[in-house]
Amino acid sequence: MAELDRLMARGAAFFGARYALMGGAMSWVSERNLVAALSNAGAFGVIACGAMEPERLAQEIAGTQALTQRPFGVNLITMHPRLEQLVDTCLEAKVGHIVFAGGIPSGAIIKKAKDGGAKVVCFAPALALAKKLVRSGADALVIEGSEAGGHIGPVSLNVLAQEILPAMAEQVPVFVAGGIGRGEAILSFLQMGAAGVQLGTRFVCATESIAHPLFKRAFLRGNARDAVPTQQIDERFPVIPVRALVNAGTKRFMAHQAEVLAKFQSGELTKEAAQLDIEHFWAGALRRAVIDGDVENGSLMAGQSVGMVDREAPAAEIIAELIGQAAAALVRRAA
Ligand SMILES: Cc1cc2nc3c(=O)[nH]c(=O)nc-3n(C[C@H](O)[C@H](O)[C@H](O)COP(=O)(O)O)c2cc1C
């Protein structure tokens, strides 16, 4: 354990947590209960702001602070129209870490967060952008492979880790995400130079997670091959890839694109109207699945790690299992 602690020391110190384990922010799932449970168990919970307005985010932060004395972070989506106010909300509430997701944040917004006293974490989808983000002031990076749940890039963590860790790990702590379900993998990434890891899918079925029982059941049943990215049927109408469990909604999405395409080709819809129609298909879909339990039509965003979700258990138990696996693997590998 001392050796594992040494490998995690930099990441754990960055968070002010016992372990260098970040709970990946998941819209609707990562609210006060799961976030506080993760932080209380020695990991670093992160609130998913998603589309919340600043007033609503302030309530969620206060609610989390009431449940834990430990540090936690807030994940903000860069294209949120009120991003600046959301940063202010975090700073006023003395949130120590702001994670910018869903795009490359401007140098100005990074500076604003840092001047207000927060540490800034950014997602780096490629080495050139990793370097740019560090130049812009990012204190730490997350590299998230295409194995992850939710919105994904095209490159696997296996490749991103090789491209980015050797070049960046000495400059700033780099956390790795996507498809991680066991401690053996956590250990491997730490040994490759990662400061720590970020897991999402593995925490959906935490007892403290408020996800609907049917959403959790889909995760308990799902296998890696069921968690697939959304498919685009025509190159003129881009679809942002989102990894989710296959259900009636994902199948209908294909048929819907075909219908919209036919309407565009017949002149019934303009290109802009057709693109908007396709984009609107999934509006509100994650909420419908996570909160309402509509697992047929809602979005079951999940990583390929979903096959390693085998039971509902308290966050502390999941974390103890991951750390135990990493420590046991370290002993085996040293032998
Ligand atoms: C249901 C769900 C919702 C997510 N929502 C967000 C989000 O709002 N913001 C974000 O940056 N990442 C989001 N993610 C990605 C996670 O933060 C994390 O990086 C990812 O789950 C890691 O891969 P894993 O699921 O294989 O562990 C989401 C993932 C899932 C499964």
Sequence-ordered SSE layout with sheet pairings:
Layout: H1 2-15, E1 21-23, H2 32-40, E2 46-48, H3 54-67, E3 73-77, H4 83-92, E4 97-101, H5 107-115, E5 119-123, H6 127-135, E6 140-144, E7 150-151, H7 157-168, E8 174-177, H8 183-191, E9 196-199, H9 213-221, E10 227-229, E11 242-245, H10 248-265, H11 271-280, H12 285-290, H13 315-334
Parallel strand pairs: 1-9, 2-3, 3-4, 4-5, 5-6, 6-8, 8-9
Antiparallel strand pairs: 7-11, 10-11
The chain binds flavin mononucleotide.
Treating each run of at least 4 consecutive H or I residues as one helix, how many helices?
13
Q: Assign a percent range to the helix content.
A: 40-55%
Shape: globular
Give unreliable regions as ranges. Answer: none
CATH superfamily of the largest domain: Aldolase class I
Query: What is the CATH fold-level name of the largest domain?
Result: TIM Barrel
